[in-house]
Every structure is written in C-alpha cells, then in structure tokens.
Design a protein that fits this description.
Chain B: This is Protocatechuate 3,4-dioxygenase subunit beta. Chain B: Keywords: Dioxygenase, Oxidoreductase. Chain B: Residues 14-46 form the Protocatechuate 3,4-dioxygenase beta subunit N-terminal domain. Chain B: Residues 52-235 form the Intradiol ring-cleavage dioxygenases domain. The complex is a heterodimer. Chain A is mainly beta. Helix content of chain A is 7%, strand content 27%. In chain A, a hairpin with a 7-residue loop joins β5 and β6. Chain A is globular. By secondary structure, chain B is mainly beta. Chain B has two helices and twelve strands. In chain B, strands 2, 3, 4, 5, 8, 9, 10, 11 and 12 form a nine-stranded mixed β-sheet that branches. In chain B, strands 6-7 form a two-stranded antiparallel sheet. The chains are: A mainly beta, B mainly beta. Chains A and B meet through α1, β2, β5, β6 and β9 of A and β1, α1, β3, β4 and β9 of B. The complex binds fe (iii) ion. The site of fe (iii) ion has 3 residues of chain B, from β8.
C-alpha cells in the first residue's frame, strides 16, 4: 500500500440552503453591524499589477431559471501567475490583491467580480496552464459545492494546450468553461443542468 | 520505510469519497431536481490552482464575531433562547489539526426563524439575534462560539417537512479543493431521522459525524450547555520517504 488509508473520514457536505447569505454575506442580507464588509467582496486593495477586468457569471438551473440564491467563490493567480501565499497567522497586512472573491447572486442569478486577469500557472504536466479562475458554487439544492473553472476566449492558443481543458473529451463541452470578452468584462453562463450543462470537476 | 514516489501524487489530497457525501440528485430533497448536474463529474487531480487557497490571518476578527448572543444585539441585552457553547477541532483526514483556518456559521433563532427577507416561517424574530458568526481556529485547530440553540423549522418541500435544529458551517482549510459547507445537528434529536436533507446522506455513520455531542464537562454552570462538533477536511497524501513511525 503506497498511501495508508486516511485515519478519519471527511465531514460529509450538506447544502448551503436558501439562507446561505446570513453566514457568507451577512451585510448583503441586512445583517449589518457584525462585520464591516462582507468577506471576499473586494479583491483589490490598492495598486496591483496587471489588467483590471470584471468577471460576470450568470447561473441557470435545468429549467432555465436563474439561480438567484447562489453564492460563487473564485480563487485565482495574480497577473504574474502567482497565488497569494498564506499570511502570518497574526499579521494584519491585507494583501493588495487577495486572489479570492465571494459574491452572492442577484435576482437574475448573476455575480460580478472586479479583479485582474490571471497569469499562467504551471500545470501537473509541467507545462503552463491557460489563464483561468477556479470557481466554487453553492446554493439551495446543491448538496455538495460544485467546482469548475473559467477560461478566457481571447486566449485561444493557450486554451488549446491547456491540461484541464484537454481532459474534456467532448470538445463542444470545453466551451462551457470559456468566458466571452465584452470590453473589459468577461461573461460566462453556468448551466447546472440541461443541454448546455457546465463541466464540473471532481478535484 | 522506503517506497516508490508516484509522480505528481505526493502531497496531493486524498480523493473525495463521493459515496460518503450526498449525491447531487436526491429526489427527497426537491430543490435538487433542477440543480443537480446530470453529467458525471470530470475527475481532475488538484493542480496548484486548487492546492492553494485563501488564508485569513489578516482578517481582524471582532471580539464578538464568535458570540451570537451579543454580536447583533440592538439594545445591549442577550439574544433569547437556550444558551450554549459550540466548540470543536478542525482536523484533516490524517487526524492532523488544521490551524488558523476560517470557520463561519449561521443559524435560525431559538424559535426557528431566520433573519432573511425570504424566510417564510411565522415564528417571531428576535431583535437581538442576527444568526451569523465566525472564528479562526487556534494553533491546535480549535474553534468555539457562544449562541442560543436554534429551533426546528418548517420548510416547503413536500408540504409538511421540518428541519431538525441545526447550525450551518463553512470551512476553508488551506487548499481551495478542501472547501466545505455542512450542517451540524444535535445528539439525540429524533427529527434528524425524518429530515429529507439529512437523508441525502446514505450512510448512518456519516450522519453521526454531523451530530454534535453534548459535553457536560465543558458546560458552564448556570449559564450555557456545551456541544462538541469536530470537522474533518480532506487530507494530503505523503511520500513514503516522509513516513515516520508515528505517522504523518
Ligand atoms: Fe437551515
């Protein structure tokens, strides 16, 4: 046995439920005065290198209804392809670019992140991955958080050689991860189900 | 002990046991009907992008962030309800403590009512109860908070479903692929066994893992009961060369 069986079982997931905002974005649902700003609302705290972009994600269920009660978290590298490292446990220094964002959907099932375009990060095959953002989606009716990625449509060459995109055998389904550029905004529709179902990962 | 190093496998997370977690499509919980992906998940070992994750050492937690009895108080008095302390240790699957990680929690008030505009239960709001709190685990992975016991509440599912008393938890760990949301139930509550959301989990042992244990030893006399709820996040593999007798 190369790797011993782990000692403990991972705590099983349960749905975030319809009131996820209370715990993850309290100010958004009028629970004010407990924390100053909802965590993850602002990703940029000062001068940062790289191209400033907005990422807009709309989420739909299998009936085409917007997932108006979902929450999306993103995690990404900075413009030079580095992830923000752990801060010292008692440091109060907020990184100018956190790499992590969290937004609640509006009634149209839409979230918006103000961020920078990520640089390329080396993949498990030793080659550079295409620029991408990791996504984690929770909502009522989602029993375990959904993991996927967002890529950029103006990075066609890098996308073509990307380790993860190339794992998706049905090439048409690769498109479900690729956001379309519109000015400085990249837009991606996520479909939890149906003909255009997004590719989700078991990571 | 020596062994073979699998290329790329060292330090990776153990694969998630998807039979231990609830499946995506669980008809007894009707909200999953249109929200469960139908395609199977694409297996993808974590890359650097998922093996890293945000840390919150820089987040200055307020002194009342882990006190739901007082952190939303409008008039300086306590929230109404049965007072209790919830505490526990965040560990990984290798039984190693997960220090300095953010734990967020939210719940209904003592009457079972959430402070949320979409809440439809007629139980009274408590003006002094918000229902949100957070902690960062200490160097041994422990968190604790003070709250009131949440009430059970009805919800629209099949017409007359009730949730057992529960507290929602969000935990980060140190890798984005460890991200977890779950719910904590209370030992001995018969309503656990009639809840369609609990029943999305197949294995009784997994449900027991979500059940906090009454801890009389840590109960504060004349003040608050104590419940212990440990949380296990995904663990990392290690190379055989790193193996020590005491395990790692
Ligand atoms: Fe709940």
């Amino acid at each position: 046995m190369l790797h011993p069986v782990p000692t403990l079982k991972e705590t099983p997931s349960q749905t975030a439920g319809p009131y996820v905002h209370i715990g993850m974005t309290p100010n958004f649902c009028d629970i004010t005065g407990v924390i100053a700003e909802d965590l993850g609302k602002t990703m940029i705290h000062g001068e940062v290198a790289g191209e400033r972009i907005d990422i807009v994600i709309r989420m739909f269920d299998g009936a085409g209804t917007p997932v108006f009660d979902g929450v999306v978290e993103i995690w990404q590298a900075d413009a030079s392809g580095n992830f923000v490292g752990p801060t010292a446990p008692n440091s109060n220094a907020v990184p100018t670019f956190t790499g992590w964002g969290r937004q609640p959907a509006n009634e149209q099932g839409e979230v918006r992140f103000e961020t920078v375009k990520p640089g390329r990060v080396v993949g498990p095959d030793g080659k550079l991955q295409a620029p991408h953002v990791s996504l984690w989606i929770v909502a009522r009716g989602i029993n375990i958080g959904l993991q996927t990625r967002l890529y950029f449509d103006d990075e066609a060459e890098a996308n073509g050689g990307d380790f993860v995109l190339n794992k998706i055998m049905d090439k048409r389904r690769r498109e479900t991860l690729i956001a379309k550029r519109d000015g400085s905004t990249y837009r991606l529709d996520i479909h939890l189900q149906g003909e255009k179902e997004t590719v989700f990962f078991d990571i | 002990m020596s062994g073979i190093i699998l290329p790329g496998a060292d330090g990776m997370l153990f694969q998630r046991d998807r039979d231990w977690h609830p499946k995506a499509d669980t008809p007894g919980y009707k909200s999953t009907t249109f929200r469960a992906p139908k395609h199977s998940l694409l297996a993808l070992g974590p890359t650097k992008s998922e093996m890293t994750g945000p840390t919150f050492g820089h987040e200055k937690l307020g002194p009342l962030d882990n006190d739901l009895i007082r952190n939303f108080s409008q008039d300086g008095t306590d929230a109404i309800g049965q007072r209790m302390i919830v505490y526990g240790q965040v560990l990984d699957e290798n039984a190693r403590p997960v220090p300095h990680t953010l734990v967020e929690y939210w719940q209904a008030n003592a009457g079972g009512r959430y402070r949320h505009k979409k809440e439809g239960y007629l139980a009274a709001l408590d003006p002094n109860f918000g229902g949100f709190g957070r902690s960062i685990t200490d160097e041994n992975g422990f968190y604790h908070f003070r709250t009131v016991k949440p009430g059970a509440y009805p919800w629209p599912n099949t017409g007359n479903d009730w949730r057992p008393a529960h507290i929602h938890f969000s935990v980060f760990g140190h890798a984005f692929a460890q991200r977890l949301i779950t719910q904590m139930y209370f030992e001995g509550d018969p309503m656990i066994w009639q809840c369609p959301i609990v029943a999305t989990i197949n294995d009784k042992a997994a449900i027991d893992q979500l059940t906090a244990k009454l801890d009389r030893l840590n109960t504060t006399p004349m003040d608050a009961l104590a419940y212990r709820f440990d949380i296990v996040l995904r663990g990392r593999r290690s190379t055989m060369f790193e193996n020590k007798l005491e395990g790692n």
